[in-house]
């Protein structure tokens, strides 16, 4: 028993350590704190203005009900289990009650924190449209927490039940009635009856059915992985997450635009680079995002001819990101064995990089020229973009790869 | 005529202070299927890595069609195909693209490619999976992709490392048939394996490797004669070698 508790604690600690490391990176090199600060200040300002303009009969209670419902009914449970547990922990499943109870409590605390933030954000709206007494809003928090715990508990029972749709509907419905009756201050009998129904459902539906079924380990694992992925994908916006590197997206439609045209050695690496760029590691996503941002900046922030520098900077930054493609691991047994010289590979990569950057230059220059409204501006921006593309691909990258080869 | 593969006095491994292979000598002629057998850690994979040119010999020379890899790397590579023990695929490429890239890299023309790939896809029952990505493939299917890529190019020399594990019975039979066919067309095949009963049935010659040395090599008949018991199977001989019951190693 004690070992299992230890196992949970260790995994939880590991989880925190990992998260902390990523948060550290995110905080350090992304300027996210600044963005958050701006969002809080600007958001507060507009929120206030919006509140002031609300009509007399605005259904604030209903809106807050839906907001809480959204955050309370979604109740994933962090179990910290791994694929190997399906082999190693399966034999002691009967003794894992405490392990999973800890997981439920942990999930409850984490999600309650988020609910608390939502609660604070909804406070002005509540005071203005429902009830101005602080006591009334405190009751709301209590009720929200009850709903959250009930949902987490039911969600856990659902992990042993096969037919989930009616149960999920019931769970959402009861949560809604309970929250709505409190937030709109219906007569006490309504929430009381609803609470009774929730307790009844808990024991005679969820627990009763769960005891008849077996724990669906695959589903629990999937729930865990999905949550872990959420965070990693978020962190990946700011920094490289090695575990996400493996992901491949098919992108069939756009892939079809680049079929094998010439059947010869020179084009082996063209194909490899294009398809890897489109499908692996989200190189393509980064390229599109940077191009989009570049276009927006050039269009909205009108600097006249100075926009040329923005174009140049966007192309340079994109080049740095796409350069990673060169180091994308390729299987030794295939690419490593091809009778094609390293020089061909280098040459095709540099060419590919140039085409990508030149294409981006055209797009961003068009956006900038649309704002400036002149052909001269377009030509100037394009020249700047192409110059940087050429220097980056043939100059910088070319020299770097040649040096690497020695 | 030059042997397709000749290994002379090969010593090698990962570190000069602890060589894994000691003075290996063998030759393979066109149309020969040679079984490379030995315990885990006997040096089979290291031998293969040396032949592929992934490791540099400490001593000795390896020639494919009379040429070393140092003389002409691309020509050397062009002449051999490799099926690794653990399939490694491009995760971002479909099965069809794997075949296309291989064909392009080894300078097949489009017609030949279409013909051969159709034949191979059919043989391994993969024609419906042409546009699939490897993440949907089982270990056996991945293995089939590697085999198809290797047999698409029809080189002079095939290096096949433990190909049977994970393959379904039809896959195994198709591979064996394919190897027979390539042999008949004059290719040499070096195959490392632990599945001795199959090896015994199909291989023309054997190299029994133990502790980085060749314990014995030759046809099954020759090996049996040296072993002294005509009714012994390859399995019996191999176990005897591994347990040190023969006089062959020193």
What is the helix tally of chain A?
A: 15
First-residue to last-residue Cα separation of chain A: 59 Å
What is the CATH homologous superfamily assignment of the domain at 5-87 and 157-242 in chain B? P-loop containing nucleotide triphosphate hydrolases
Largest interface: A-B, 27 and 38 residues
List the secondary-structure elements of chain B in sequence, H or E: EEEHEHEHHHEHEHEEHH
For the record, the count of structural domains of chain A works out to 2
**Total strand count of chain A, please?**
0
Radius of gyration of chain A, CA atoms, in whole angstroms: 28 Å
The main β sheet of chain A shows up as: none
Please provide the ordered H/E string of secondary-structure elements of chain A: HHHHHHHHHHHHHHH
Q: Uncertain runs of chain A with pLDDT below 50, 5 residues or more?
A: none
Largest sheet, strands/sense/barrel of chain B: 6 strands, mixed
The geometry of chain A reads as: globular
Question: In one word, what is the shape of chain B?
Answer: globular
Percent helix range of chain B: 25-40%
Mean pLDDT over all positions of chain A: 88
Q: What proportion of the residues of chain A form beta strands (DSSP E)?
A: under 5%
- Mean pLDDT over the full residue set of chain B: 89
**What is the terminal-to-terminal distance of chain B?**
33 Å
CATH class of the domain at 5-87 and 157-242 in chain B: Alpha Beta
**Which runs of chain B of at least 5 residues are low in confidence (pLDDT < 50)?**
none
Characterization of the model:
The complex is a heterodimer of chains A (406) and B (250). Chain A is an all-alpha fold and 406 residues long. Chain A has 15 helices and no strands. Helices cover 74% and strands 0% of the residues of chain A. The model of chain A has no long low-confidence stretch (mean pLDDT 88). In chain A, helix 3 (60-73) packs antiparallel against helix 7 and helix 14 (342-372) runs antiparallel to helix 15 (375-405). Chain A folds into two domains: 2-233, no CATH class; 252-405, no CATH class. Chain B is an alpha/beta fold. Chain B has a domain at 5-87 and 157-242: P-loop containing nucleotide triphosphate hydrolases (Rossmann fold, 3-Layer(aba) Sandwich), CATH 3.40.50. Chain B has nine helices and nine strands. In chain B, the strands form two sheets. In chain B, strands 5-6-7-3-8-9 form a six-stranded mixed β-sheet, with helices on both faces. In chain B, helix 6 (169-184) links the parallel strand 6 and strand 7 (188-192). In chain B, helix 3 runs parallel beside helix 5 and helix 5 (139-152) packs parallel to helix 6. Chain B starts with a strand and ends in an 8-residue tail after the last helix. The mean pLDDT of chain B is 89. At the A-B interface, helix 11 of A face helix 2, strand 5 and helix 3 of B.
């Amino acid at each position: 028993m004690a070992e299992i508790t230890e196992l949970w604690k260790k995994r939880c600690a590991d989880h925190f350590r990992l998260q902390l490391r990523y948060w550290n990176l995110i905080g350090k090199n992304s300027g996210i704190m600044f963005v958050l600060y701006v969002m809080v200040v600007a958001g507060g300002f507009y929120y206030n203005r919006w509140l002031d303009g609300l009509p007399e009969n605005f259904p604030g209670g209903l809106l807050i009900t839906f907001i809480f419902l959204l955050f309370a009914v979604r109740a994933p449970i962090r179990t910290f289990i791994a694929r190997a547990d399906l082999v190693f922990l399966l034999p002691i499943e009967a003794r894992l009650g405490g392990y999973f109870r800890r997981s439920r409590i942990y999930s409850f605390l984490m999600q309650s924190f988020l609910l608390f933030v939502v609660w604070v954000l909804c406070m002005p709206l509540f005071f203005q449209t429902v009830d101005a007494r602080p006591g009334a809003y405190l009751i709301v928090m209590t009720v929200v927490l009850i709903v959250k715990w009930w949902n987490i508990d039911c969600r856990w029972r659902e992990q042993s039940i096969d037919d989930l749709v009616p149960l999920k509907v019931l769970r959402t419905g009861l949560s809604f009635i309970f929250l709505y009756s409190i937030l709109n201050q219906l007569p006490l009998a309504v929430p009381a009856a609803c609470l009774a129904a929730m307790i009844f459902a808990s024991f005679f539906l969820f627990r009763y059915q769960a005891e008849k079924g077996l724990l669906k380990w695959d589903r629990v694992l999937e729930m865990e992985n999905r949550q872990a992925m959420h965070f990693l994908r978020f962190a990946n916006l700011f920094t490289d997450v090695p575990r996400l590197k493996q992901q491949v997206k098919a992108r069939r439609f756009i892939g079809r635009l680049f079929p094998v045209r010439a059947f010869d050695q020179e084009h082996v690496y063209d194909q490899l680079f294009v398809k890897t760029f489109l499908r692996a590691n989200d190189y393509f996503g980064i390229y599109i995002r940077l191009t989009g941002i570049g276009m927006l900046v050039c269009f909205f922030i009108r600097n006249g001819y100075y926009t040329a520098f923005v174009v140049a900077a966007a192309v340079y930054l994109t080049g740095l990101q796409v350069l990673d493609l060169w180091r994308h691991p390729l299987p030794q047994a295939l690419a490593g064995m091809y009778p094609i010289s390293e020089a061909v590979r280098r040459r095709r990569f540099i060419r590919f990089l140039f085409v990508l950057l030149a294409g981006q230059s055209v797009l961003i220059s068009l956006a900038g020229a649309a704002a400036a409204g002149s052909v001269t501006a377009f030509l100037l921006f394009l020249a700047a973009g192409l110059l940087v593309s050429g220097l980056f691909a043939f100059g910088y990258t070319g020299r770097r790869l040649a040096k690497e080869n020695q | 005529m030059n042997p397709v593969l000749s290994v002379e006095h090969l010593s090698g491994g990962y570190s000069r202070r602890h060589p894994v292979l000691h003075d290996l000598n063998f030759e393979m002629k066109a149309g020969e299927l040679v079984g490379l057998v030995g315990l885990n850690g006997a040096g089979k994979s290291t031998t293969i890595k040396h032949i592929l040119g992934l490791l540099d010999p400490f001593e000795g020379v390896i020639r494919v069609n009379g040429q070393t890899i140092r003389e002409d790397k691309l020509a050397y590579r062009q002449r051999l195909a490799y099926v690794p023990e653990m399939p490694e695929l491009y995760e971002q490429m479909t099965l069809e693209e794997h075949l296309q890239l291989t064909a392009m890299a080894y300078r097949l023309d489009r017609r030949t490619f279409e013909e051969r790939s159709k034949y191979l896809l059919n043989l391994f029952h993969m024609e419906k999976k042409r546009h699939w990505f490897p993440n949907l493939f089982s270990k056996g299917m991945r293995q089939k992709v590697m085999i198809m890529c290797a047999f698409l190019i029809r080189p002079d020399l095939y290096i096949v490392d433990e190909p049977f594990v994970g393959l379904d019975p039809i896959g195994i039979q198709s591979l064996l048939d394919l190897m027979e066919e390539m042999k008949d067309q004059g290719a040499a095949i070096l195959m490392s394996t632990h599945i001795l009963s199959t090896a015994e049935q199909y291989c023309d010659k054997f190299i029994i490797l133990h502790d980085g040395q060749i314990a014995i090599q030759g046809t099954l008949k020759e090996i049996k004669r040296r072993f002294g018991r005509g009714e012994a199977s390859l399995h019996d001989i191999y176990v005897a070698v591994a347990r040190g019951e023969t006089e062959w190693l020193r």
